[in-house]
Amino acid sequence: ESSARLPAPQGVMVYSYNFRSSLRWSPVEVDGGPLLYTVHFKTAAFNQWDEMNCTRISGTECRFPQLLNERSWTVTLRVRAERGPAVSDWVESEPFVAERNTTIGPPRVSSAAEAAFSDSLLLSITPPFAPRPGELLQYRVSYWENATRATRKELKTSSSLFKITDLKESTLYCLEVRVELQTLYCNISGRPSAPQCHSTALS
Fold first, then answer.
1. Are strands 161-164 and 196-199 parallel, antiparallel or unpaired?
2. Domains in the chain and their CATH numbers?
3. How far is the C-alpha of 61 from the C-alpha of 69, rounded, in Å?
4. Structure confidence by residue, pLDDT tens digits, 87-125
5. Distance from C-alpha of 141 to C-alpha of 162, rounded to nearest angstrom
6. CA 11 – CA 66 distance, rounded (Å)
7. In 10 A of CB 90, how many CB atoms?
8. Which pLDDT tens digit goes with each residue over 166-200?
9. Cα-to-chain-centroid distance, residue 71
């Protein structure tokens, strides 16, 4: 039986971006061609291994099914390599909780250029995902005069259309925005958008 035992997958990790999650691992290299892989999952509430939608697959990534899209669940996954009757040991992931462990990407930010004000900027934000009932999305906006970051200021808003006021006229301001998600159990801060610059109008 030991001679039929395959090497176990390495680098087993859950990757999650904007709550789209998958288990990934490095391919097992052995003579005789590619191997197949099977993935199981269990939750903290129901501590029993169950099949996912990845049984005897040739790829090295398994996307979470709709069943596992509950963001507050603690989920553990395991994967093994297979070829005919030969299998490897199971390798488990670290426990994963989406609302704590996902990476939140930057929002999309645009200027309402047709509404040009001499003392303010009107901005529109498109969030990277839609919040669920009971969740609150807020935006932390950091802005500064293009000439110097020393004038950097911050504001926080929950509106996707907002105005930065008390600005100098005919001046170029740069800004970046990050999402902050508040859930019942935790707060997550996302990655900032790439800095972009907009000019106020001349009065």
1. unpaired
2. 10-97 (2.60.40.10), 108-199 (2.60.40.10)
3. 17
4. 999 999 999 999 899 999 999 998 866 556 788 899 999
5. 10
6. 24
7. 17
8. 998 888 899 999 999 998 878 899 999 999 998 88
9. 12
Distance CA 84, CA 4 (A): 10
d(CA 61, CA 53): 11
**CA-based nearest residue to 99, from 127, 65, 66, 75:** 75
Distances, alpha carbon 8 to alpha carbons 20, 29, 37, 183, in Å? 26, 10, 10, 37
Length of the chain: 203
Angle formed at CA 76 by CA 70 and CA 81, multiple of 5 degrees: 125
Q: 3-state secondary structure string, the chain?
A: CHHHCECCCEEEEEEEECCEEEEEEECCCCCCCCCEEEEEEEECCCCCCEECCCCCECCCEEECCHHHCCCCCEEEEEEEEEECCEEECCEECCCEEHHHHCECCCCEEEECCCCCCCCCEEEEEECCCCCCCCCEEEEEEEEEECCCHHHCEEEEECCCEEEECCCCCCCEEEEEEEEEEECCCCEEECCCCCCEEEECCCC
For the chain, give the longest Cα–Cα distance.
83
Burial 100-129 (b: 16+ CB within 10 A, else e): bbbebbbbebebeeeeebeebbbbebebbb
Q: Is the pTM of this model over 0.90?
A: no
Are the C-beta atoms of 164 and 158 separated by less than 8 Å?
A: no
Joined together, the tokens standing for residue 26 give 């490095």
